[in-house]
Amino acid sequence: MKYFIYIFVFFSAILILWIDLPRSIPIKFAAFGQSIDIEIKPLVIDIQGTNFRYFKEFKTQLGLDLKGGSHLVFEADTSGTKQSDLEDALNAARDVIERRVNMFGVSEPAVRTVKSGDIYRISVDLPGVYDVAQASALIGQTAQLQFKSQPSEDEKPLESKNPQATESADIGLFNLTKVTDLTGKDVKKATVTFDRQTGQPQVALEFTKEGGKKFAEITKENIQKQVGIFLDDVLISAPTVQQEIKDGNAVISGNFTTDDAKQLAVAINSGALPLSISLVEQRSIGPSLGSVEVQRSITAGVVGLGMVMIFMVAYYGRLGMIANLALIIYGLISFAIFRAVPIVLTLPGVAGFILSIGMAVDSNILIFERIKEEQRKGKSFDIAIRLGFGRAIDAIKDANITTLLVAFILFNPLNWEFLPQFGLVRGFALTLAIGVATSLFTGIVITRRLIQLFYKK
Amino acid sequence: MINFLNYWKVYLAISLTVIILGLVAIWQWGYIYSIDFVGGTNLEYQFSPPVSQGDLESGIISNGIEVIQIEPRSNDRYLMRLAAIDEKKELALRTSLESKLNTTIIVLRSETVGPVIGAETLKKTAVAAAIAIVGILLYIAYAFKNLNFALAAIIALFHDALVVVGLYSILSHFFGAELDTLFVTALLTTMSFSVHDTIVVFDQIRDYRRKFGKGNIEEFANKALTDTMVRSLNNSFTIMFMLLALVLLGGTSIRFFAVTLLIGTITGTYSSPFVATPVAVWLEKVRK
User: Fold this and answer.
1) Are residues A159 and A226 in the same domain?
2) CA angle at residue B258 from B256 to B261, to 5 degrees?
3) pLDDT tens-place values along chain B, 288 residues long
């Protein structure tokens, strides 16, 4: 049993160190007449199943304030929308924004809806985007519904603007480059209907009078040819025209789910976002500012930690060294958790972590003081440790639970709208909570083992 | 054993002095509110070649934008507090400054917050703090099976909050510290630390009561304070080392945050033996 524990601890330690590894470390040495050349890389889990793939990379995730980027908050104008449709409209708006942001080529964007009382907002995080004017223009723009047809032979084929659209489509659609004058503005109404034969959901378009005329012309010119329907330059459907359509109605069919069709209808209906939105908050941090702050925080953390360690050794001697060892283990475990979850580290988050280091030391100090006290009373070493730990744990538990309570309220895990919902405070609360929880573990379990291992009379 | 409780008048005098000083500062100077609370625009630009503060200010004003404050960050960097402008106006301002002052600008930071969000933030934070306080009160009352201890811990918590809030007004007036969401975070942390520290002292009193029955609360308290004083100070030193390093070496945007936490740690450590314990003893004696 005992050996099992040792083996378990050994492998946990390897795993934690592996996760914490900052970058690949090459190992080259010669042994037994053979040269060994291995590279240890930070842990990456990549499991390929028959119908699933699990991929996880353990990287430090930095928040916008540290790596640079833009944070935009839009407020939705809900005055024209019925209360019952509000939630749907807001979610549709979020989806539209998400699609546009993805088109922008941002890595790991985050688009969220935030409700606060009667006010609905959409917050957008764009890492690596520094030009707020460009980003907000892109997000707030009108959805572009376009009809494109194949150019006739006397027209020069135009370069496709969006290679993605043509890639995803059949080769025959490659030619859908001629932009017609029919646009989203000519659509009077879009509704979800179901195909009478197949039961497939589809989107029915009803054109305005003007639009009907344009559509009739397009269909007349393109009989037995495909016409492409594009939304935001992405091809949605490319039906083949069977005959001239004069009544001003058209159907977009494709492999839609009912939800897809609904979304599409909403997007076309509004010709823009389903709600009008206005920018109420924007923050953008340049890349250089963030890296300077990271560098400084790391320096400060290292210097502070060094001072704490020197103090502990100076005051508690060998017990201090054990505390320092426990503290390093504590730091490694916390960091591994930050990477594994992963937790997005922001500046206040780093501060919360640094503060939790201070609180982690507290557990050790409490225990040591109690052990010393018991020893002063003439108890033997083993008994002093047992009693000291037992008495310290009550205080450690009660003190840390209150800190966890505050962190919990600040983090607002259920996203209650009467509590703070801003990211910075949440980042702080999260790292503080993880720090305190980890310190409960290292303070109680690890310090005790270390003392029994290294500290004899 | 040191008879700490004997000197309660000294503690009261110290606490009152600091708190009254802070309250006077709030009344006299108030705070510089950050855009988090009142709305507005923060711009941090880097100029190459560097420009003078006067040229920069007149350049901004000539664009019809109200300047609230310009703070040099280094010889080529300025932090500008402006009335709220949107991103298009910011772009226009940047272009006009570049041509007028014959320089190129790198945008280090650009933040605009509408005034509505600020008021909301303040309200939500107050709610969060109130819930946290009630939660702490209930937890201590439960853990110590004693409402007096819980009340004393909360009084010490309010004491620490008042100290931090008051002294921040002085920081705000003399060093330009802004009242922002980070300050609110620091305040809430101080409150949780305050209780954390108080509980350790109370735990020792609880310990004595378990061993020797109800007994003389004053004697137990003095004993407990003597026992925990070294631990309390040592613990605070370690937190203060971390925070001092952050204040002196950390990034500029969290400097005042770290200073606030430092003040919070000091008052949190002070209040456990010198506010919470005397109040708890007094309550135990009065409410019998």
Assistant:
1) yes
2) 110
3) 778 778 888 889 999 999 999 999 999 988 888 887 778 888 888 888 888 888 888 888 888 888 888 888 777 888 888 888 877 788 888 888 888 888 888 888 888 887 666 677 777 777 887 888 888 888 888 888 888 888 999 999 999 999 999 999 999 888 888 888 788 878 877 887 888 888 888 888 888 888 887 778 888 888 888 888 888 888 888 888 888 888 888 777 778 888 998 999 999 999 988 999 999 989 888 876
Q: Do B241 and A116 touch (CB under 8 A)?
A: no
Whether residue B192 and residue A402 make contact (CB cut-off 8 A), yes or no, is: yes
Report the C-alpha gap between B19 and B17 in whole angstroms.
6
CB contact under 8 A, A432 and B108: no
Do B148 and B230 belong together in one domain? Answer: yes
Q: Which residue type does A427 have? A: G
Q: Following DSSP, what letter does each residue of B97-117 receive, concatenated?
A: HHHHHT-EEEEEEEEEE-HHH
Cα angle A362, A366, A367 (rounded to 5 degrees) comes to: 120
Q: Is A399 on the interface with B (CB under 8 A)?
A: yes
Alpha carbon distance A47, A37 (integer Å): 26
Boundary-marking domain end, from B93, B113, B133: B113
A298 and A435: one domain?
yes
On whether the pTM is more than 0.95, the answer is no
List of residues 6+ apart from B195 with CB closer than 8 A: A399, A402, B136, B140, B153, B156, B157
Query: Residue B258 has which token pair?
Result: 């770290």
A77 is written with which tokens? 């104008």
What ipTM was assigned to the predicted interfaces of this complex? 0.78
N- to C-terminal Cα distance for chain B? 26
Q: How many CB atoms lie within 10 A of CB A340?
A: 14
Q: Answer whether A359 touches B (CB < 8 Å).
A: yes
Contacts of A289 in chain B (CB under 8 A): 44, 108-109
Among B113, B145, B169, residue at a domain's last position: B113
Half-sphere exposure of A22 (CA within 13 A, CB side): 0
Question: Whole-angstrom Cα distance, residue A55 to residue A61?
Answer: 16
Q: Are A333 and A356 in contact (CB under 8 A)?
A: no
Residues B88 and B133 occupy one common structural domain: no
Range of the domain at B20: 4-35+116-286
DSSP structure class, residue A224: T
Q: How many domains does chain A have?
A: 4
Say whether B254 and A348 touch across the interface (CB within 8 A): yes
CB pairs under 8 A between A and B: 222
Which residues have C-beta within 8 Å of that of residue A82, sequence separation ≥ 6?
A: none
How far apart CA B36 and CA B40 sit, in angstroms, is: 8
Chain B segment 182-241 residues within 8 A of A by beta carbon are: 182, 184-185, 188-189, 191-193, 195-197, 199-200, 203-204, 206-207, 227-228, 230-231, 234-235, 237-239, 241
Quote the DSSP letter at residue A63. Answer: P
Calculate how close chain A gets to B237, using CA atoms only, in Å.
8
- Smallest CA-to-CA distance from A442 within A349, A348, A336, A344 is with A336
Range(s) of the domain holding residue A343: 287-454
Question: Which pair of tokens denotes residue A32?
Answer: 């037994």
Which of B120, B131, B246 lies at the smallest CB-CB distance from A409?
B131
If asked whether residues A100 and A154 sit together in one domain, one would say no
Tokens of A186: 């000519």
Do A148 and A227 touch, CB atoms closer than 8 A? yes
